[in-house]
Amino acid sequence: MAETIGFIGLGIMGEPMARNLLNAGYSLVIHNRSQAVVERLDSEFETVTRASSPREVAAQVSTVITMLPDSPDVRAVVFGVDGDGLIEEMGEGDLLIDMSTIAPATAIELYDALKEKGASALDAPVSGGEPGAIAGTLSIMVGGDEADFERAKPIFEVLGQTITHCGAAGAGQTVKACNQIAVAVNYAAASEALVLGAKAGVDPEKIIQVLNGGLAASRVMELRGPNMISGNFEPGFRINLHRKDLGIIMDTGKEFGVALPVTALVSQLYDSLAANGKGDLDHSALITAIEALANFKVSER
Amino acid sequence: MAETIGFIGLGIMGEPMARNLLNAGYSLVIHNRSQAVVERLDSEFETVTRASSPREVAAQVSTVITMLPDSPDVRAVVFGVDGDGLIEEMGEGDLLIDMSTIAPATAIELYDALKEKGASALDAPVSGGEPGAIAGTLSIMVGGDEADFERAKPIFEVLGQTITHCGAAGAGQTVKACNQIAVAVNYAAASEALVLGAKAGVDPEKIIQVLNGGLAASRVMELRGPNMISGNFEPGFRINLHRKDLGIIMDTGKEFGVALPVTALVSQLYDSLAANGKGDLDHSALITAIEALANFKVSER
Fold first, then answer.
1. SS3 assignment, position A143
2. Which residues of A belong to the active site?
3. Any CB–CB contact under 8 A between A229 and chain B?
4. SS3 sequence, B84-120?
């Protein structure tokens, strides 16, 4: 019989991940700020137990998954307020699997704090978005000790398809940061190519076709290019979420002494989109920043 | 029997392209500034005729291919000095196929000038570099009239593998410009991701592996990533050639009213590499500009 594990953070990503674990036979002790999803899962699954604080979750299990919006949320759940944090009940043999996307430095801080208590931690951020969370096909980038990775693997295999142990604590978050650099900057490449070509009079579908046949090819142009030229920016992955990740990236660059001039510029273009009320569009809407600069819309050519 | 065509510009790209045409049964009337390659081809192939000027080439054939370094070179060959240009002998039924990478505006100028004489022109820049030229596997991006495209197709099929009619005159050059934007900016994406990740302590091979498994994937990271992390920048495609293309791109952006902020920044990073004596390295050496800013070499981690 599969073990009972804790799950904290049942949002857009967390809820379908928790459902996949429940459907795979795991019992869950759950905790979440908003109660609607807690009641939903509690009424649907007999194998769900509710806990009123992170500490109460940790008291009942030896493995806890967190899936939260940002670094401060994860710190708050782990370190707690007035002694209600996970860390109060974590010790020898206990494991935190943080699947949120947060700063590598915070992941290392959590790892060190838990090690001091005899417990351990994995950073295990994901890519693949809500569809990947629902389908159980996430890509999971893991940092931490090898033995902890092996222990968590059966859980990861329920949630994701591509599971990579990237290195020591923080390495999962670092690779996620690298991933988000590449996605954002590749969108900039596709955006400037498509706007220049279309405003110069070329059918943008031809541009996608030719570029994806050679060295210029990128997955973002292949998967999102058609939506970029038709102006369909239904998310997908929201600009505001990518902006949060870009904030982590720029902080991490500062911390490790790595100037990121191109990522910084793309980050500012995303900030400009947010200032123009587009923060909830898909991140492929970066093309609209280049369109605005050119006073030209590819979709209206 | 295949027709006799003219070929002007027998450099690193032009010579192997001419050889492929000769081996496919075409007879060539050739002209080149440097005489060594002219003598080489003349002594190897009975089907080669030498001409002492572009005008003399045009006098003997109805189809002329040009493969030259830059816009001024193509203008000089077509318009000539003291009446020795191609245009003097071009009229009804004659076709210029310019396979150089030049400004879209120049391609349109040539097309218009030749149309006025009753002749026609295709812009047909290529990607795939010297290996593609030798193997006859170039990607050919063609702008111009449909009938001219159909007429030139058997020639293109000897020289390349992916042949796309992109639109009216200039469209081939425009798509080539888009292609070079995407390649340069995708290199920037891969460079910043790899330098940040490696300086933060992650094995860069893991980064390539994870990123290429998802939305962050690009062909440049897939094909050149391994060389970027080992510091092998043997060309390939030289930085100085990509800088020439980036000059065309920025001029074209100005002409059509398209600001290209990210491409402009990447172009300046390439200029900095040239200023540091790296203009003859492969364009994937863009990573060394990010490494220099970070005072860190991925290959020496």
1. strand
2. 176
3. no
4. CCHHHHCCCCCEEEECCCCCHHHHHHHHHHHHHCCCE
Among B260, B265, B238, smallest CA distance to B249 is for B260
Same domain, B100 and B214: no
Own/partner pairs, A148-153, CB within 8 angstroms, 24+ separation: A148/A95, A148/A120, A148/A121, A148/A122, A149/A122, A151/A63, A151/A95, A152/A63, A152/A95, A152/A97, A152/A122, A152/A124
Please check whether residues A189 and A287 belong to one and the same domain.
Answer: yes
Catalytically active residues of B are: 176
- Which one of A164, A178, A295 has the shortest CB-CB distance to B193? A178
* A47 close contact with B: CB closer than 8 A: no
Contacts of A253 in chain B (CB under 8 A): 196
Token code pair at residue B243: 């800088």
- A65 and A209 assigned to the same domain: no
Q: What CATH number does the domain containing A33 carry?
A: 3.40.50.720
B142-183 tens-digit pLDDT: 999 999 999 999 999 999 999 999 999 999 999 999 999 999
Q: What CATH number should be reported for the domain holding residue B203?
A: 1.10.1040.10
Residue A263 near chain B (CB below 8 Å): yes
Do A250 and A231 lie in a common domain?
yes
Chain A CB contacts of B166 under 8 Å are 202-203, 206-207, 210
Residue indicated by tokens 């070079």: B180
Of A113, A143, A168, which residue is a domain's last?
Answer: A168
pTM for this predicted structure:
0.96
Q: Say whether both B149 and B193 belong to one domain.
A: no
Question: Is residue B247 within 8 angstroms of chain A, CB to CB?
Answer: no
Q: How many domains does chain A have?
A: 2
Distance from the Cα of B120 to chain A's closest Cα (Å) equals 20
List the structure tokens of B276: 């540091």
Share of chain B above pLDDT 90, in %: 97
Give yes or no: residues A161 and A211 share one domain: no
Q: Is B134 on the interface with A (CB under 8 A)?
A: no
CA distance B224 to chain A (A): 10
Complex ipTM over 0.90: yes
Over residues B200-258, the pLDDT tens digits come to: 999 999 999 999 999 999 999 999 999 999 999 998 899 999 999 999 999 999 999 99
Please say which residue of B134, B151, B168 terminates a domain. Answer: B168
Both B160 and B195 in one domain: the answer is no
Instruction: Determine whether A295 is exposed, middle or buried from the number of CB atoms within 10 Å of its CB (0-12, 13-18, 19+).
Output: exposed
The backbone torsions φ and ψ at residue B119, rounded to the nearest 5 degrees and listed phi first, read: -90, -170
SS3 for B4-59 is: EEEEECCCCCHHHHHHHHHHCCCEEEEECCCCHHHHHHHHHCCCEEECCCHHHHHH
Are residues A36 and A107 both part of a single domain?
Answer: yes
Residue span of the structural domain in which B138 resides: 4-168
Alpha-carbon distances of B42 from A71, B9, B29, B37, B46, rounded to whole Å:
70, 15, 10, 8, 7
Inform me whether the C-beta atom of residue B146 falls under 8 Å from chain A C-beta atoms. no
Which chain A residues in 176-205 lie under 8 Å from chain B, judged by CB atoms? 177-186, 188-190, 192-197, 199-203
Residues on chain A touching B249 (C-beta within 8 angstroms): 196
Six-digit token string for A185: 């900057």
